[in-house]
């Protein structure tokens, strides 16, 4: 297999800017490393937009059961956002789903069984590379664009049997929950024509400033470095690279080549202070402004949401999840709020997978959504 960095499939055509968002550029059938039974799979590349509304080429992996949909209605589909949580292209799901590789580590690996659970219900599943071609981890608008344009592309891909009227659900945990949340809140303005019936998100990181301060110099400090590296790739105007010392630039260069587990093993307990050329890098107004812009809650979803989080979450504090849910609720959103008093981040990631799937099943069958706003 050829890694994305050397694979021509991931290279944008010169005409990309002339295409509408969601337009298919190329497609190819693929063989998955752990293929679910009776499933056909393809990769689809398509035009999307980055966080500045500039054209990018994005990729999604579409899986469709080969057995006929028994009905009623059209076969539903789910856009599943993995917690890639890294800043290297070889960690993207389109590659890790095909390669028998350790690149799919951490939470992405723990979610590996979820596509099969969705496919067993007869649903189609799309898994987008929601970090985009720059591996822009935590860049919210870009991830929302890629998820929504990936749905547009899948609906236009005739071999998959989906249509513009296909009912869709969104789901993801941790970093995948963030991408799903951004897609949900951007959909009314960015892709109002899409038939999205609901979203199930959990352990969702939102307030990037708070998360960076909580995890700096701790066991999950590499997530701080990956957050800032992803933001730096997407927002050069934040000037993060200019605020690093020589050691910091070297660390950022190395972490941009790593997937989650290697980063956590290599750079745990790293202090941002030791990588910075200035005191208080996070306090720089350019950095703080971009982090604020990439915090969930500025927009409001019009689809029902299932939001779950462990109260003992040591990596992603539940309070910042409560904050954006409160913002959504105050603006008229419909949210079922689940808080587990005894679960931390990793356990919570699997505790409600079945509940999230059942929530989407109810939305596909028009069961009224619970509302705890």
In short:
The protein has 373 residues and is α/β, with parallel strands linked by helices. The protein is built from 13 helices and 9 strands.
What does this molecule look like?
The protein has 373 residues and is of the alpha/beta class. Helices cover 35% and strands 17% of the residues. The chain has helices at 93-96, 106-110, 114-119, 140-156, 175-190, 208-215, 221-234, 246-255, 260-267, 285-293, 318-330, 345-351, 353-364; strands at 24-29, 39-49, 55-65, 77-81, 124-128, 168-173, 196-202, 305-310, 335-340. Strand 2 and strand 3 (55-65) form a beta hairpin.
Percent of residues in helices: 25-40%
Q: For the terminal residues, how far apart are their CA atoms?
A: 48 Å
| Biggest β-sheet: strands ordered side by side in the sheet | 1-2-3-5-4-6-7-8-9
By helix and strand content, what is the structural category? alpha/beta
Low-confidence stretches: none
Order of helices and strands: EEEEHHHEHEHEHHHHHEHEHH
Mean pLDDT: 94
- DSSP helix count? 13
From the alpha carbons, calculate the radius of gyration and give it in angstroms. Answer: 19 Å
Largest sheet: 9 strands, mixed
Proportion of residues in β-strands: 15-25%
Shape, per Cα inertia axes: globular
Q: Please report the total strand number as a whole number.
A: 9
């Amino acid at each position: 297999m050829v890694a994305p960095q050397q694979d021509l499939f991931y290279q944008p055509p010169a005409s990309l800017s002339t295409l509408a968002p969601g337009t298919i550029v190329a497609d190819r059938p693929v063989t998955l490393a752990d293929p679910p039974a009776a499933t056909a799979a393809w990769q689809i590349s398509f035009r999307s937009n980055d966080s500045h509304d500039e054209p990018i080429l994005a990729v999604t992996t579409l899986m469709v059961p080969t057995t006929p949909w028994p009905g009623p209605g059209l076969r539903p589909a789910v856009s599943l956002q993995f917690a890639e949580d890294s800043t290297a292209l070889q960690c993207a799901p389109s590659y890790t789903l095909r390669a028998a590789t350790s690149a799919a580590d951490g939470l992405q690996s723990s979610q590996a069984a979820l596509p099969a659970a969705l496919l067993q219900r007869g649903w189609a599943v799309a898994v987008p590379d929601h970090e985009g071609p720059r591996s822009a981890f935590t860049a919210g608008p870009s991830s929302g664009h890629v998820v929504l344009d990936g749905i547009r592309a899948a609906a236009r891909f005739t071999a998959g049997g989906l249509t513009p009227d296909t009912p869709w659900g969104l789901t993801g945990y941790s970093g995948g929950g963030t991408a799903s949340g951004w897609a949900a809140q951007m959909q009314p303005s960015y892709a109002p024509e899409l038939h999205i019936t609901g979203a199930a998100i959990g352990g969702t990181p939102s307030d990037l400033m708070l998360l960076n301060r909580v995890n700096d110099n701790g066991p999950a400090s590499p997530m701080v470095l990956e957050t800032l590296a992803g933001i730096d790739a997407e927002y050069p105007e934040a000037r993060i690279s200019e605020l690093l010392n020589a050691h910091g630039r070297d660390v950022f260069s190395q972490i941009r080549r790593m997937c989650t587990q290697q980063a956590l093993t290599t750079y745990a307990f790293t202090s941002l202070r030791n990588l910075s050329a200035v005191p208080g890098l996070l306090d720089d107004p350019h950095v703080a402004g971009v982090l604020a812009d990439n915090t969930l809650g500025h927009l409001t979803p019009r689809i029902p949401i299932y939001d779950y989080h462990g109260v003992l979450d040591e990596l992603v504090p539940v309070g910042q999840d409560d904050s954006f849910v409160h913002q959504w609720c105050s603006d008229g959103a419909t949210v079922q709020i689940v808080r587990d008093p005894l679960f931390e981040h990793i356990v919570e990631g699997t505790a409600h997978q079945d509940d999230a799937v059942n929530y989407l099943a109810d939305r596909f069958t028009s069961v009224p959504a619970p509302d705890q706003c």
